[in-house]
Amino acid sequence: MSSSTFVFLFLLSFLTSFRACAQNPTYVYRICPNTTTFSRNSTYLANLRTLLSSLSSPNASYATGFQNATVGQPPDRVTGLYLCRGDVTPEVCRRCVAFAVNETFTQCPNAREVTLYYEECMLRYSNGNILSTLNANGEFSMENTQSITSNLVRFTELVLSTMNQAATVASNSSRKFDTVNAFTDFQTLHGLVQCTPDLTNQDCLDCLSRIINQLPTDRIGGRVMVPSCFSRFELYLFYNEAAADRTPQPQLNSAPPPPPPISIPSPRPGESGNSTVIVIAVVVPTTVIFLLLVAVLIFRAKRKTTAYETEPLADGDDIATAGSLQFDFKAIEAATDKFSQENKLGQGGFGQVYKVLINPLLTYFSIYINMLRLCIKTIK
């Protein structure tokens, strides 16, 4: 054999093996009590082979992800089922079940009662009646290695409430399956719960409630599995979200809704020709204006007595007359309809708030601007 042919055959064998390995389901756990066993030439073994062949046949119900069967008569009767995770495709389900069937006699060679867990499916059989019967024994749990370092109580409450919400939805559905999302601290909590569909709604809810309380909520992820149901949560998306027929869940810990927009009222009847707006019409007491003017004059007087003043104020920046800062009370009274209660909007930090016409509003704003301008120039 030439070297090139050898290399080609080696690569072909390697790629074929790699592809087959990549398609293998991920093994998780097994339950093989070995309390009762069977011999290699027993009737039970023959019935078991028939059962496993039926469950892994091309005509099995991979689209529904669940099937059960019973073969033989007591004491050699065997009952079995498979359950594929609710978010996997029928083809992934078929491959997982076929792989589990082939692994049965390797994982649990002589046991009459076996449960094999894979990421994508579960295979179970027994010499007892396991159909439509709640079994929460043989609990198996796994947890993420990373612990919750802050807000443990809050995180625990979120996990339990979210997973119990999913359990309620799953128990009332025909598939006995649900996934759920919740949002916390800029991260998304992903959860998945599932029961075998042969359980009643109440049995499914009881099973899920029991194992949800056993979840390792002090970690950022974990799962608990029993023969009749399982649950899992993570801070990353571990299931096929597109394939899971998930009911949208309300967002938790979301920001509060924005405040409603402020509406602008229409003019009152008879106020044609002038638009009205909502403004803060501040009726400033005469005392405040007087104190402000006194403070400005005192400050200017002190500056003139020091040697640091280098130039006089420019023309027009000084206070020309006292009348330039006086308010026309009659104009304010007319603009607010004599301070009527209909025009009153509320109470502000400087007095009562009224709705006024646009022209008086501009007048008052110009007064405030002039006052501010004079104070700035004076300080400079």
From TrEMBL:
It catalyses: L-threonyl-[protein] + ATP = O-phospho-L-threonyl-[protein] + ADP + H(+); L-seryl-[protein] + ATP = O-phospho-L-seryl-[protein] + ADP + H(+). InterPro entries: GNK2, GNK2_sf, Kinase-like_dom_sf. It comes from the Eukaryota. Residues 247-269 are annotated as: Disordered. Residues 1-22 form the signal peptide. This is BnaA01g12990D protein. Residues 255-268 have a biased composition (Pro residues). Residues 26-130, 136-238 form the Gnk2-homologous domain. The chain crosses the membrane at residues 277-299. Keywords: Membrane, Repeat, Signal, Transmembrane, Transmembrane helix. Pfam families: Stress-antifung (PF01657). It comes from Brassica napus. Coiled coil: none annotated.
